Amino acid sequence: MKRVLPFVLALAFGMPAWGQTVDSNGAKRLSDDLSRYVGRKALDNGILKISVDGDAYRIAFDFDALLKMNPSKDALTFNLAPFALLVKPRSDGSWSVSSDLAPNAFLDVEGPRGVRFSVSGSAFGGIYDPGLAAFTSGVGSMAGMKVISRDPKKPMDLSIGAGTSTLNASKAAGGGVDFAMTQTIADFVETVIVDEGGSGPKVPVTMKSPKVSVEVTGNGVRTKAFLDLLGFAVANQDEASLKANQAHLKSLLTSALPLWERLEETYRFEGLSFASSMGSFELADLSATTGIDGISGSGKIDYRIKATGLTVPQHFLPSWGVALLPTDVELSFGGANLDLDSMAKKAIEAFDLNEDPPLSDEFGEALVADFMANNPKIVLRHSIVKNGNVEVTMKGEMTFPDKKPDATMTVDVAGYDKIVQAVQAAAKTDPQAAQVLPAALAVKGFAKTLSDGRLEWVIDAKADGSVVVNGAMLKPADAVQDDGDIIDPNDATDQDDGSGENDNGGAGAKP
Structural domain tally of the chain? Predict the structure, then answer.
């Protein structure tokens, strides 16, 4: 509710700001315009109330009226004053928007899956541009928040300290809106109960971070198109109306493409710890970034995870394994060559709400076949795992010719001898290390030594089932059947003749 309601109301300011005069007639016009996006019932039943408040309009959301329209089976206890926005027209056609979002409020849901939510000292102020259907600037703050879940299988306590947020937006050169949002909160603490089920133990795990930050950016976000789709959804809530106006829906969906050019979101936890009865796992810094292209002919999705300063309880590892534990990890992976544009356009053109299903199974299969024909890839971009003695870099990609995976990966290791030395020393007294040692030596036997001393493995796992490491056959292709006869494709597989002709020249896994 805290996130969705302000977003919907923000989108609803699609009307112009009518000069500087604020009066009852303006309040009525504002009500009529808002009804297009929230529905007439919300106004008629008092869920939304628009009134004049000095030189501004007051838009109040009444939780009590909402609950009366949608009674809950669980008993509710709440102390929520009507959520209110003060909106004031500006001379340039934009709106000044301010709100004490929830100065001090709580919602308590009783029953076996009850939850208690409370927030204090929350406020927001910004400038909204109806022409962009976006806030061009905004600042928010919060004194604190708590959430307690009584779910018997997943009980949880969450508390957050003071937080601030800012946002800015402007018109994008290629259409839509470019925006940036940042949020920082202090004293993040979450405790969950890990239930093993049956008679197993119920282990509390507490996650803490003194500082959590979020950064979200968007390029070319089609905010006005989303606003039009929201208005259509409100105006066509019944099935008959939706079917009768599906041509208009198709037009709106097409106009909304590509939805956005690029969206990126990064979460960062500083001084993160996970504590339980088994010990404490700690990270000096953890960040996770997601980047998603809009609907395009060759889009990509990126995920990046970066962790530094990892420490774990030593009893989780054998003594010789502690020295080999990675302390820093940077993984970058995702997808590429994702042709969602043709899929979306074909689906919009073909769907028929008068049919059940609106898109046939045959059409869906053809759509997937077209998508795969564009050669989509799973990509492992330059990634690093390291500690004080060893650094491993990796990169690779996987495609799916004939719906079978075909992958290539390059792995470089600096300090591999340190790994072997640690295992060799431990193997004298530790049976586990003795078992690992032959494998460590065998892996080294397949390596190629690069000019800087790093060891490299170029691994090709083909769609025919064969696996080649640095040109040497590790596993032959799977046997295939032809007219009842088993044919061994190994005869047609090129073998490494030692000339280096088929090698990659030691390019390495570096970018």
Answer: 1
Does residue 485 or residue 363 have the better pLDDT? 363
Q: Would you say residue 401 lies in a domain?
A: yes
Residue with tokens 């329209």: 69
Q: Which amino acid is at 102?
A: A
Its domain, for residue 442, covers 391-492
Query: CA-to-CA distance for 394 and 413, rounded, in angstroms?
Result: 9
Q: Does the residue 60 lie in any domain?
A: no
CA-nearest of 68, 48, 69, 70 to 59 is: 48
Separation between Cα atoms, residue 135 and residue 125, nearest integer Å: 10
**Taking a C-beta distance cutoff of 8 angstroms, is the pair 10, 135 a contact?**
yes
**pLDDT tens-digit readout, 231-284:** 999 999 899 999 999 999 999 999 999 999 999 999 999 999 999 888 899 999
Q: Where are the beta strands (DSSP E) in 227-298?
A: 262-276, 279-293
Indicate whether 19 belongs to any domain.
no
Which residue is listed with tokens 């979002």?
101
Are 353 and 248 spatial neighbours (Cβ–Cβ below 8 Å)? Answer: no
| In a domain? residue 466 | yes
* CA distances, 489 to each of 26, 173, 226 (Å): 79, 55, 54
**239 CB-contact burial (10 Å; exposed 0-12 / middle 13-18 / buried 19+):** exposed
Q: What is the pLDDT of residues 304-328, one digit of tens each?
A: 999 999 988 877 778 777 778 899 9
pLDDT value at residue 18:
46
pLDDT of residue 79: 60
CB atoms within 10 A of CB 256: 22
CA separation for the pair 178, 167 (Å, rounded): 11
Q: Which amino acid is at 210?
A: P
Instruction: Work out the pLDDT band at 7, boundaries 50, 70, 90.
Output: very low
Closest CA to 432 of 320, 288, 355: 320
Which residues have C-beta within 8 Å of that of residue 282, sequence separation ≥ 6?
Answer: 271, 272, 273, 274, 309, 310, 311
- Does residue 38 or residue 494 have the better pLDDT? 38
Query: What does pTM read for this prediction?
Result: 0.83
- Scanning the structure block, which residue is given the tokens 């040692």? 437
Residue 45's pLDDT is 85
% of the chain with per-residue pLDDT over 70: 83
Q: Across the strands, what pairs with 280? A: 275
Sign of the Cα torsion 434, 435, 438, 440 reads: negative
Peptide bond into 357 cis (omega under 30): yes
Q: Which residue shows structure tokens 């009768």? A: 244
- Which residue from 288, 286, 237, 231 is spatially nearest to 255, judged by alpha carbons? 231
Strand-pairing partners, residue 287, are 268, 306
Neighbours of 410 (CB within 10 A): 20
Residue 272 CA to residue 206 CA, distance in Å, equals 10
pLDDT in tens, 340-360: 999 999 999 999 999 999 999
